[in-house]
Amino acid sequence: MTASGSRFLVVDGIRTHVLEEGFGPPVILLHSGEYGACAESSWSSLMPALAEAGYHAVAPDWLGFGRTDKMVDFADPTGRRMRHMAATIEALDLGPAAVVGNSMGGTYLAEDLARDEPGFRAAAAVLVSGGGFVPDNEARRAILDYDLTVDGMARILRTLMFSPALAEDPEYVRWRHRLSLEPGAWQCAASARLRPPGSEGGGEFGKVDTTPYENITVPTLLVAGADDPLRLPGYADEVAARIPDVELVVYPDCGHLPHIEHPERFRDDLLSFLDRRFREEVSS
């Protein structure tokens, strides 16, 4: 199967946006959850490299993000997003796929992989700044405080990344700012910080990580930034120690978005892992 560009499909009554590029074994790309996050902002620069290497890159927008319908289930926001993504993957009918997730996408992927009956049906997994305890710290509060201005987007990017280069690139900041203006996107992203009166922590953050990583049975690559402000120091080592079949790489001088801050190294590490641990399996 091959595809190129952008398309929509209706999944359980929800209009769902997907980017696709290339021929070959499918690689599903799950984006992060900050303001303006979507398939385009996370994966548009990586997808051509995957296609050139002989993979079918597929990047859906999560429920509430990008150009997918803007809906939030306040009783079970994570569960609803994960069920919708599982249904989207089922509707795409891709067959055995490698699944790559960054930040929110990586954390949700890890939670799915650890279930008795995973919904994403990953044959291999790549967790990019995903998994582990998610503290409700100063950096987290800084990226949750967004006023929909260009300066506000630059502040988010400065927080997420070790290098200030992209946050000081006016063209890049304007692009990310434009993506954050999708109608309803701010409200859906902002919902993660809501909490009932008297409860502890900031909404979805600061909660104990109960994911049983020992249950993950597929080959897994864990990629982390050594200077990630949204995780605790050493979190990746702790997560990796609990996954039976795992490879861990930690990038120095890197924050929460290794695939964006170090695109060439991430591309090479990802393709090496996919060629060794995924392509050979689906081709045999």
TrEMBL record:
Indicate yes or no for the key word Calcium: no
Q: Which GO terms describe its molecular function?
A: hydrolase activity
Which Pfam families does its entry note? Abhydrolase_6 (PF12697)
Q: Does the keyword Hydrolase apply?
A: yes
- Taxonomically, the superkingdom here is Bacteria
What InterPro entries does its record include? Answer: AB_hydrolase_1, AB_hydrolase_fold, Epox_hydrolase-like
Q: Residues in domain AB hydrolase-1?
A: 27-268
Keyword set for this entry? Hydrolase
Q: What are the TM regions of this chain, as residue ranges? A: none
Q: What is this protein called?
A: Alpha/beta hydrolase fold protein
Species: Pseudonocardia dioxanivorans (strain ATCC 55486 / DSM 44775 / JCM 13855 / CB1190)
